[in-house]
């Protein structure tokens, strides 16, 4: 994951993350997951860079690194969304 650049956002209706190789200037690959397709959002809280694990209803999951200063409020918004 260290050789990747990531951006993570939780919007009102969907979760969005963008990724690309860190040494690339190409536009990032964008991944959008509708909130209804999210089964769980988990976190590995170690150090300043947390791992956000997004699990979809099909059972597939992907972990994306996210700075703790962004991940903490993102997770709070996810759990308080109803």
Describe, in plain words, how this protein is organized in 3D:
There is one protein chain. By secondary structure, the protein is mostly beta strands. It has a single domain (4-79), classed as Roll (PH-domain like), CATH 2.30.29. The protein has one helix and six strands; from the N terminus they run ββββββα. It has one helix at 68-79; strands at 4-10, 14-21, 29-34, 38-44, 49-56, 61-67. The strands form two sheets. The protein has a three-stranded antiparallel sheet with strand order 1-2-3. It is globular, with a radius of gyration of 13 Å. The N and C termini lie far apart (32 Å).
Give structural attributes.
single chain, mainly beta, 82 residues, PH-domain like, three-stranded antiparallel β-sheet
Report the radius of gyration as a whole number of Å. Answer: 13 Å
Give the low-confidence spans. Answer: none
Number of domains: 1
Largest sheet: 3 strands, antiparallel
How are the strands of the biggest sheet laid out side by side?
1-2-3
Order of helices and strands: EEEEEEH
* CATH class assignment: Mainly Beta
Fraction in beta strands: over 45%
Which structural class do the helices and strands define?
mainly beta
CATH topology: PH-domain like
């Amino acid at each position: 994951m260290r050789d990747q650049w990531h951006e993570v956002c939780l919007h009102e209706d969907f979760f969005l993350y963008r990724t690309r190789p860190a040494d690339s200037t190409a536009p990032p690959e964008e991944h959008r997951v509708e909130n209804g397709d999210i089964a769980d959002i988990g976190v590995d809280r170690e150090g300043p860079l947390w791992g956000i694990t997004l699990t979809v209803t099909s059972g597939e999951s992907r972990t994306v690194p996210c700075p703790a200063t962004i991940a903490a409020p993102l997770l709070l918004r996810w759990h308080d969304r109803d």
